[in-house]
Design a protein that fits this description.
The structure is a single chain. This protein is an alpha/beta fold. The chain contains 10 helices and 14 strands. α7 packs antiparallel against α8.
Length: 311
């Protein structure tokens, strides 16, 4: 079982360390993690090293969002034989460390590193000078071993968290799935809504996504929902429900909401944890001039969803 820690305390024995952002744990990361697992055959403990916030957020003002929440990352990493995930706070002091200092003080002394596993685009230390060539030179000098993994591509496109974010934000859910190696999802606690869906024959469950998750375009998605160990085919609207939502009452949450119609009538589910997994972006969210027009469109959406899943 993997241990998550925010310091070097508790790391015992010689280790193999994988450095990276690991945002999304996509199919490119899978190659790095499987290589890290192979190091266990050499008697090494395995360590993933990442940073919070990401250096990209600090230096390049990238948006501070995530493809996987902390709990989702923990679940995905349980598939691998990883001993530790060390998440270091990316402080100004850490940012100023040279690559030589980072290697000596953090990788070797603190993490007891004997081998570094990283992608060919690895960078660490001041101005990112700790790159693949630097690690290869350190191995030639018998300071630390390194295993550099070539970047994975799909149809000639390099697999990266940045590319996956673009696919999600543009509604290309199938392409995001191909690059991630699994389907993108959201998890939240089902909240009691205004029961408007019941009035027009399409009752729904709804929750607000975790704050830092990357959001796709507002619209209707074909999906599956997992609740209390049961899985349902679903039709999900991600957005602000412009046709039915007026100004929220005092104390109500605002912002993007996930509202799902579940095929199979599962009953009352308020307070339960729900995971909605996206399969296909069907259409953008839009405002209808009347409730009758909205209901007619939802019935068309429902039929299209049933056809997609062959229900």
């Amino acid at each position: 079982m993997i241990t998550f820690i925010n310091s070097y305390n508790g790391i015992e024995g010689d280790t193999a360390v994988a450095i990276g952002k690991f945002d999304g744990l996509h199919i490119g990361h899978e190659q790095i993690l499987k290589t890290l697992e192979e190091c266990k055959k050499e008697g090494l403990k395995t360590v993933i090293l990442s940073f919070d916030p990401s250096p990209d957020v600090v230096f390049w003002r990238a948006e501070d969002t995530e493809l996987l929440s902390r709990s989702e990352m923990e679940e995905h990493l349980e598939k691998y034989e990883i001993d530790y995930h060390v998440i270091l706070s990316f402080t100004p002091e850490l940012a100023r460390m040279s690559c030589e200092e980072f290697l000596e003080e953090i990788l070797i002394k603190s993490l007891h590193g004997k081998t570094v596993v990283a992608g060919e685009d690895v960078s660490f230390g001041y101005k990112g000078r700790g790159d693949a060539e630097f690690l290869k030179q350190m191995e030639k000098n018998n300071i630390i071993k390194s295993r550099i993994i070539r970047k994975k591509t799909v149809d000639g496109i390099p697999v990266s968290s940045t590319q996956i974010r673009e696919y999600i934000k543009s509604g290309q859910i199938e392409k995001a799935t191909e690059f991630l190696g699994y389907r993108y999802s959201f998890t939240g606690i089902i909240e009691e809504g205004k029961h408007l869906g019941r009035t027009y024959g399409i009752p729904t469950v709804n929750f607000f996504p975790e704050k830092k998750k990357v959001l796709p375009p507002n619209g209707v998605y074909f999906s599956r929902a997992r609740i209390k160990g049961n899985t349902y085919y679903a039709m999900t609207n991600i957005g602000v429900r412009p046709s039915v939502e007026n100004e929220p009452h005092s104390g109500e949450k605002k912002g993007v909401n996930l509202e799902s119609y579940l095929f199979g009538n599962p009953g009352e589910l308020y307070g339960e944890t729900c995971t909605v997994t996206l399969y296909h972006y069907h259409r953008p969210e839009r405002k209808f001039d009347s409730l009758d027009l909205l209901v007619a469109q939802l019935k068309e959406d429902k039929k299209a969803c049933m056809d997609y899943f062959i229900l």
